[in-house]
Amino acid sequence: MRRRLLLSLMILAPLPLAALAADQPQWGELHSRNQVSKETGLTTTFNPETGENIRWSVELGTSTYTTPIIAGGRVLIGTNNEDPRDPEHLGDRGILLCLDEKDGSLLWQLVIPKIAAYQDWPKVGLTSVPTVEGDRIYLITNRCEAMCLDLQGQSNGNDGPFVQEGAYMALSDEGTPVGEKDADILWVTDLIETLGVHPHDSTHGSILVQDQYLYLCTSNGVDAGHKFIPALEAPSLAALDKATGKVLAVDGENMGPRTVHCTWSSPSLGTANGQPVLCFGGGDGVVYGFRPLDPAKPPTETTILQRLWRFDCDPEAPKENVHQYKGNLKVSPSNITGMPVFVDGRVYVEAGGDLWHGKTEAWLKCIDAGRSGTVTDTALVWSYPLEKHCMSTPAVTEELVFIGDCGRHMHCVERKTGQGCWKLDTEGEIWGSPLVADGKVTIGTLSGELWVFSAKRELEVLARIDMKSPIHATPSAANGVLYVATMNRLYAISSKSVAD
Length: 500
Fold this sequence. Notes:
The chain is mainly beta. The protein folds into three domains: 1-30 and 66-197, Beta Barrel (Thrombin, subunit H), CATH 2.40.10.480; 204-385, Lipocalin (Beta Barrel); 396-500, Lipocalin. Helices cover 2% and strands 35% of the residues. It is built from two helices and 36 strands. It has helices at 165-170, 191-195, and strands spanning 36-37, 54-59, 69-71, 74-80, 94-100, 106-112, 131-133, 136-140, 145-150, 185-190, 208-210, 213-217, 237-241, 247-250, 268-272, 275-281, 286-290, 303-304, 307-312, 334-335, 341-343, 346-353, 362-368, 373-374, 380-385, 395-396, 400-404, 409-414, 420-425, 435-437, 440-444, 449-454, 461-466, 476-478, 481-485, 489-493. Strand 3 (69-71) and strand 4 (74-80) form a beta hairpin.
């Protein structure tokens, strides 16, 4: 089985909620998607078997692909329902768990019914990473919905106008009882119904919040036989009103005919030449730069995002009849699965052949985001070859770039020149992304090992820890604690007492 991986209603404006100073409320740094944390004092000495320096750990489901998010004293993580927490909700479901940051106890959960198998792969669960702003959670569900939730769940009442949580979770008019351990849904926008998209394997991504807008990947992809795109003209990128879930803008790039498998990346935002640029990695192997929506002039009806530039990461690859190359390991189109990271006017992104059906060739690219038009021949700063396929998002420091690949290698690259500093065989495929924090690089492998390196030009392995289960998720750090999710368990790791 391939394991890849992630109702519009008006609500009142969200109320502000004071966050802890070192929370991690979204995937990576604000807007840039750079998984570099300012946390310090993180330990490299811990033991999942003996409990050494394990502050707490909790059982998850059996498939966990999402990065832990920490905000407002809560830890959010997506998984499946193979360890049911509510007898009212048994069987295959997507699950978002909200845990107490102090001890990992369950505060509430969101139960999400499944849809068709090839659109929502059995037992994969929820693969999207939530984004928290104030007391609002923004999420893409396994049903290909954009959703807004109350961070407090039902503990402070069922805030409307959406009050059909019982019917939603049970997928029936009668519904099930809703209690304090259930999520409080504020609005839901069905992207299949609203935009006509056709997700494949799993809908996922991480919503980007900017001003009053939400930017997200639609996960539009191929049919069950991988022979064509059912929703050929559906958008790959969309912008929604964060207060209502109303679709305000979509891309007009017609990526569908060139999408070899699915659109699996998520947008980032940065500044180039003093202007904001919304960056998106398409399922067609092209990185796009768009002008973000004007906060002072929200669209009154659905509009097309203005493209500023496009950069083809693999210009020599096939661009027509792309699905005829399925299974061709030498000649095939390319796609982008990791997120583009936007730092100091440059974009760092991986691209290459599809993991399951395409060529093994892949690269880490550095792109000048300050150009305009078709910039494939003018905006490339450097290109670094990776080993086999890659699905990782790079982590960018002031001097170095770190990334893992599916060829079982961890890479350290010079940020300015793209020259390799070191490469290490991790003896396990890497599907997640590196976290840089406290002068260290932390990354997990499918063989179940967590590697920790010094974040410097010379290779120095600080730790190699057997976590007893495959790791697909990217580690997080917040409030002095390192969070590592394996496929079936979440660990909160700290060598010292952390104030409640």
